[in-house]
Structures are given as structure tokens and as C-alpha cells.
Amino acid sequence: MTHALQPPPKSSPELDANWLRELLVTQKNTKMRHVISLLIENEAGALSRVSGLFSARGYNIESLTVAPTEDASLSRMTIVTSGSDDVVEQITKQLNKLVEVVKVVDLSESAHIERELMLVKVRATGKDREEMKRMAEIFRGRIIDVTDASYVIELTGTQAKLDSFVGAIDSGLILETVRSGICGIGRGDRVLKV
Amino acid sequence: MVITGAEIVIRCLQEEKVDYLFGYPGGAVLYIYDELFKQDKVRHVLVRHEQAAIHAADGYARSTEKVGVALVTSGPGATNAVTGIATAYCDSIPLVIISGQVPSAAIGQDAFQEVDTVGITRPCVKHNFLVRDVRDIAETIKKAFYLAKTGRPGPVLVDIPKDITAQKCEFAYPETVSMRSYNPVVKGHHGQIKKALQLLLEAKRPMVYAGGGVVLGDAADKLTALVRKLGFPCTNTLMGLGAYPATDRQFVGMLGMHGNYEANMGMHYCDVLLAVGARFDDRVIGNPAHFSSEPRKIIHIDIDPSSISKRVKVDVPIVGDVGEVLGELLALLDNTAEKPEPQSLGVWWKQIEEWRRRDCLKFNQGEEGLIKPQFVVQKLWEVTGGDAFVTSDVGQHQMWAAQYYKFDKPRRWVNSGGLGTMGFGLPAAMGVQLAHPGSPVACITGEGSIQMNIQELSTCKQFRLPIKVILLNNGFLGMVRQWQELFHGNRYSESYMDALPDFSRLAEAYGHVGIKVDKPGDVEGALREAFKQKNDLVFMDFQVDPTENVYPMVKGGQGLTDMILSAEDL
After folding, report:
1. Fewest C-beta in 10 Å: which of A149, B42, B163, B399?
2. Which residues in B lie closer than 8 A to residue A97 (C-beta atoms)?
3. What pLDDT is recorded for position A5?
């Protein structure tokens, strides 16, 4: 979808205007990553209403996490999706239309925090054993399971941080990984509550 | 008072003042049918296929302001109902469907006649419920009715396992419903409404485009008052027919793929468009990019925010009940001395009249030769004085019905617009006839569609429904044939209907009156004769010209102004 826009070779007000217009159109049509957070009645089938909506309308789900909140009658979901502004507007409208959805907010519209949990099982023998421990420390991970041949490393952070950890260690040593998908929350006064 | 779940179900229906329940019994709903037997307030209409039960409830709902109600059993009962439910969903029709489910303990065991009804219907209902406790039945049914008829209406399904209908508990029907997650907007934003009025008053080439939302919102009177007061042209969608009187001079006809020339041209070239309870769907505006290529300001009133700016970007969105918003617009208009500028409006009307003079719906009916299908619909309109309830199936006959029967009142035109369900017409007519005993009800159909639910002729006999079936029999799946002629090099792949029964004799076999008409001169007489028979279903098999096509036509994916007006345009 994205393509690099070159400024026009010779500057003129008309060309600049065209270029700017094209830039704006491109930005509008560009698939941007969005983090949508919602509160939904904690009822059987609620998750499939949401996931069914995404698949039926051809929307993208990068990750989806869900768990009950401190009020057990409500679940909170964090959905990472991508789409142009029009598509994301439709996604939030369609989510709001689901009868069991109480509130929807696009967290990525303003300052927010994202965290994801990853557990990585790595081979830890010989010289790799010390190296793995060092890498875990550098990324502020914790080793939560130890055998004579492997570690399980727990790591939380943004998606990018977890990606870079996976990139930083020798891929041949990774036995398995599991990631939770991200949880998101607004910064400061922004509160998602009934 | 402690009563069984089954009795609670029936008591709830009584509380909701349900007079007709369309259904078909089976194992999982036996307790409910047993309770139904013991009372006489809710009358059950036994259909011959569950799909017809839903369509009949749907026809009942469309022709009244009430919720249609159906009862089916588990497994195949529920899956047969799915086409009907999806039909109602696509046209936003308020229905409550109660389905039986296998006993709670058997759920998930691949039991006899078990399907995941809630799972299967989830994408085609406004909402659905699986009742897990007898104490939840009353509240769930109350919620189902509330959800079905408020906001943007739609079908709501309540799935009840058999054991729950046998258990007992105290019954009290809740008086009110409150759901923190569901609060549809009713009143429109005042500032937006003012902005809309300003745009309308400044318009030079205005157009009003009204859809099914006006009919469902019972706002036809307000729409008509507003359009007349402003002096603007008005077009209706297929679903909106009757929202503005079709015989009125300001009505420019239906728009869209088979819309009038003047309606489509006006829609495309207007500078201010007022869209009311309509959704700019693909059969209405064709290619959205082509439609957007002509600059215009759009005001869009709709109860469903997700319908706004979905396919076409809107300048003044107004979320709210169309009746409320139109009422407020009218009140504002009454309180202002401003009027639309007469001179530019005059120029615009002159242009529209010029388009109208193309007379895009003209056809030639010779005195001899084959009957033109359009002629039958035109005569039906004359014979019934334009005052019948008309249901239709799906295909060419549906478009001819929409084009040539001029609906002056809302809720008179009953068709499957969104899903396009063949087999809808006859069962829907049953619901309409039950809701309006004594009123003329016509079902315009084709020989393809009627055979998709022809078994309902038996239901019509049992319940003495004097429907007039108008079969436009051209021996082809006409709309398929038309597309094959236009876009597939005349290769009529599987669109010829061979081995057709003699429909008039088939109708007679069911105990009805059957007539076969094959001369143009006999059409009017046959119709007059049929509508005189107040107690009998009359099945009229009109042998019509098999080569006739529906015009005007906008090819799929093309712009609204690229119309084929007649065969000569090809």
C-alpha cells in the first residue's frame, strides 16, 4: 500500500498543491496500525461475535486478547488491526453496533501504553548457557524455568522490543516462543470504564 | 405462580400481544406446542417448510408496524429457517424467532437434530440468545422483542433447550428492559439538522433519496410533507417504494440498477442530496467512485451510524430516528421565512422534466401476439386501484412490479431487496393476508421463484388465504437469462426452465382456482374476475413474452448515468 512520495522536481505553487494533495490522499488510504480497546458483556459467545465480525467483513486482526475485568460481568479486549481511516472508522462503528459491546475506543488516537508478554524456550548448553542469561538480562527478561539443557525466558514490552529480542538471539537456539498479543491502556486521565 | 418454561414462552408471547405465530413442530419444541394447544390467544399458522414460517412472519411485520414471530424446532428446523432470517436481516425487519434446542446435557454431544443454532445464525441476526436457565426465559424474550423493534430493527433469535421448557419457575413478565450496552440514538443532533436545512435552502439542484428506513420508521407522512414543502424532486429505493407517493408529480421514480432515467440522472447531477434511511448500496449508486466524481453535498439521516459514510463520504451525517429528524427539519422549516430559490429550482425541474420525457418505462403491447409482463403489472395496478398489498419474489418480475405498480402508501410493497431471496413472495403474502384480512393481496412471481416455496399453497388452503398469485411465466430464469444475453454472449447456461408443471392445474390440485392466460386481450378480464373472488386463492398463470428484458439498466459496477434504456441501445 505505501509508496515513497518524492517531492516534485521543480517547485511551483501548483505542483506543490498537487503533491500535498497526493500525500494527504496516500496517508488517508495508507493502512495504519490501530489498537482498539473495548468493553463487552462477559457472556458466552461474545468473543465469537467480535471475531466473526472481523472475518465476515474482511477486516484484519493482528492480535486479539481478552479477559474479564475487575468487574466480572465485563470483559476487556485489545484488538490490534490495520486499515485505512475509512476502514478503521467502519470497524469501530460495527463493533459499537454489536449488542453486547458496551464501549469502544481507538487507543492509538492518542497517547497510550502497549505491553505484550512473551515466553521463549531456548537451548542453554555449553557457552550458550551464559550468553542466554546475559541476553535475558540486557532485555530485562527473567529466566523462569531452568533445566540442564534449556531456559524459559519471560519478557514483557512493546511488540518491537519482543521482536528485537527474538532478532538478537541465535535463531537456531530458539526451541519455541509464545506471545500473548498486546494489552493497551490510555495514558493519564483517559479511562475506559462503564 | 410457578409454571413450566414452555408455558412461560407462550405467556410471554401473549404479553407481547402476538396474534399469529408461524411455525412447524418437532421434537425439541414439543412442550411449547403442548402449551400452545391449551390456549387460544396466540394463533399458530402451520407452514409446510420452516423457511416459509420466517418469510410469513416477515411479510406480517413488513405490512404492519408489529414484530413478526416464528417458532421452529432444533437442527433442520433451525437451518431451514436461516434463509428467512438472513432475508429479514438484510432488510432490517423486526422478527423474533424461537428455536428449540436439544436438552442442555446433550448440547455438544452431536445429538439427534442438534446444530449450533446460535453459532449458525450469528452473522445474520441483530442478536441471538441461548437460554440456559428457565428463570431467564421471560427476560430474554422481553429483550428479544425490544431489540427487534428498536434502533435499526432486525431479527432476534432465542434458542431454548428442551429440558428448560419442561422445568418450572415463578413467572413475571418484566415491564421494562434496560441494557447498558444497547442504547440506540433516537433524536438527531440539533446543530447538524440546522446545518442540513441551510444546505437544503441553498440548493440549486436538490434531490431527496429515501429508502426502506422511511417505511420502517413510519415516517412516510413526514417525508412527503417535507418534500412537498421544499418543492424538491424525490426518488425512492426498491425498499423505499411507498415512502413517497408514486403518482405524485414530484416523484421521479425508483432509482438504481433498474431505476428511472430521470431518477438516476437527478441523483447523479444534483448539488445537494438528502438521503433518508437509505444506504447507497451497490444496486442503487452503481460504482461509488463514478458517483463521487460529480461534486455534491450529501446530508444523510440514518438510525445506524455504520450506514453513514460506509460507501460514500457524507458531508452532514445525522444519526437518529428518521421520523424524529424529519419532524425537526419540518418544524425548523416552518419557522423560517427562507425558501429555496425558485429560479434555479425551476431550471432544475425543467431539466428533470426533459429527462422524464425520455419515457424510459415505455413498452409496446400489441393487441395480438404475446403478453408483455409489464402490461400485466400495469393492469394489476389499474384493476386494484393502486391499493393492493403486493409481494414479490426475485428476478425480472420483481423489477417490473417495482417499476409499474405505483405505490402511494408505505408498507404495501413487500419484497426481498437486500438478500434477493427467491421463494419469498408466496409465504410473505400469507403473513400480509393474515395481518390484513379482507384486503387485496397480490403475489407477483415467476415460474422459477414460485417453485422454491410452492408447497405453501397447502398452507394457503388450510388457512383460507385468498391471495392472488400473478405468475409472469416466461419459461426462463429471466434475470439470469437477461444477464447471459447481455454479458455472456447469449449462452443461456441452465436458465431455461424445462418440464414446468401446468400451474393452473397444480393450483387446482391444492384446492385453489387456477387460470391460464395467454392473450393480451384476456389479461384485464382475468384480473378483474380474480379479485372478485374474495374467498379463494386464484393462481393466474400469465404466459408472457420470454424475450422481454428489464430496462432501464445500469450494468454492474458502472456509473448511474451509463444506462441502457432499451434493446435499441445495445
Report:
1. A149
2. 304-306
3. 43
